[in-house]
Structure formats: structure tokens, C-alpha cells
Amino acid sequence: MLSERHTPDSIILPALPYSQSALQPVISANTLGFHYGKHHRAYVDNLNKLIAGTAFADMPLETIIGATAGKPEHVGIFNNAAQTWNHTFYWNSMRPKGGGEPPETLKRKMESSFGGVEACKKELAKVAIAEFASGWTWLVQDGEKLRIVKTANADTPLTQAFKPLLTIDVWEHAYYLDYQNRRGDYVNALIDKLANWQFAAENLELA
Ligand code: MN
Q1: CB burial of residue 144 (10 Å; 0-12, 13-18, 19+)
Q2: DSSP H or E run through 167
Q3: Ligand 1 centroid to 165 CA: how many Å?
Q4: Assigned superfamily of 104-203
Q5: 151 and which of 121, 155, 194, 197 could share a cystine (Cβ 3.0–4.6 Å)?
Q6: Whole-angstrom distance, CA of residue 156 vs CA of residue 153
Q7: pLDDT single digits (tens) 95-110
Q8: In the chain, where are the structural domains located?
Q9: CA atoms of 117 and 107, how far apart (whole Å)
């Protein structure tokens, strides 16, 4: 487990929920080392530099995201804050020996929204593979229904009316060392072998 590095009152880089080699062979320790240790850490470090001495300095991460979304003068803070949040959510969206059957509550939602678990997974893969350039693909809850949505660059469904359940990072840095341009192989392997449906089910808001 990687240690956290932070000072009081700063946004912290949460520890990975598993070891850097735990997602092999789907995601190599090398990819995870760069993605978590360099990219995610850089977003956190940049954010802390940008908010130091500003009104955002003492805010929780989600508050910063809400307060800066759609504001051109705060785009740097928004991008780094949203990428900090999105990556932590992404690590939790995967687990070693993931994939398989979703918990019953989530399964029923997938069936009523997509016609079945396989149809939901297929739609998730389709949108993730088709997403142009850098961004994220999400399974979200939209009221009674589940939907697949994509966000570009750092954008996050947190600023929309959706409840995020699970995400796939489709920035090239998420897969290029292992798969080069074969995004489809990365996306399908992640859904089949790593998807943390338990985490997604825990995020459901049940009426
Ligand atoms: Mn990433």
C-alpha cells in the first residue's frame, strides 16, 4: 500500500485500495505506478498549489469542484480538483478478481434500464471505446434509471444531476503502456475482470 503525503489543510492523495500489482495482468504495475504515482499525484499537488491562500484552501474537494465548475477564471483549479476526484473514484471502480455478476440490487436496475446485465456492460464498453480523445465513461444513476454517460477531459458527473456509480478512465495514460492504441482491449478486459460492481451497488440511491 502506498503512503499518503500531505500537510494539514491540504487535499490528500488517498492510498490506492490495493497494491500496484493487484490488477495484473489487465493493468500492469508499471501503468498503475505511473497513473497513480505520477498523474494522480500531480493533480493533487497542482491543486494544492493553486488553492493555497485562496478562498478554496479550506474547502472539501467536492465543494471546490462545485464552486469552480463552469467558471473560466477557475478552470485550472476545476480541472485539477475534478481529476483528483475522478481518479479516486476510478481506483474504487476496480478490484482484483472483479467483474462477474453484480449484486442483486444493481442487477435489477441494469435489467430495468438496459434489458439485462450483458446489455448494460455492452453499452458501457461501446461508449467507452467510441469516446473521442481524453475523458471518462460512467455508469450513473439518473433518478429511477441507470444510464451510461461520457465526460470530456476532467469533467465529472458530480456537476450534473447524476449519481456516479462506476467509471472507466479512457485517457490514453490509463492504458497506453499496456495496450498502445487498443482501447477496446483495455475496456473489455476491465469490465470483464476488474469492474467493482459491489462499489457501484453501494453507490446506488434506493428509494
Ligand atoms: Mn487518468
Answers
A1: exposed
A2: strand 163-169
A3: 17
A4: Iron/manganese superoxide dismutase, C-terminal domain (3.55.40.20)
A5: 155
A6: 9
A7: 999 999 999 999 999 9
A8: 104-203
A9: 6
**By the 8 A CB rule, do 171 and 134 touch?**
yes
Output the CA 94–ligand 1 centroid distance in Å.
13
Distance 135 CA to ligand 1 centre (A): 9
Each residue's pLDDT tens digit, 124-135 = 999 999 988 899
124 Cα to the center of ligand 1, angstroms: 18
Selection from 170, 126, 133 nearest residue 148 by Cα: 126
- pLDDT at res. 161: 86
Taking Cα atoms as reference points, which of 75, 77, 91 lies closest to residue 13?
91
Cell 478490484 sits on residue: 95
Contact between residue 139 and residue 148 where contact means Cβ atoms under 8 Å apart: yes
Residue with cell 476510478: 90
Q: Find the 169 Cα to ligand 1 centroid distance in Å.
A: 6
Per-residue pLDDT at 206: 84
Ligand 1 centroid vs 108 CA: distance in angstroms? 30
Distance (angstroms) between ligand 1 centre and the Cα of 207 equals 33
Whether pTM > 0.85 for this model: the answer is yes
Q: What would the mean pLDDT of 53-63 be, rounded to a whole number?
A: 94
Q: Cα(197) to centroid of ligand 1, in Å?
A: 20
> Residues 149, 140: contact at Cβ < 8 Å?
yes
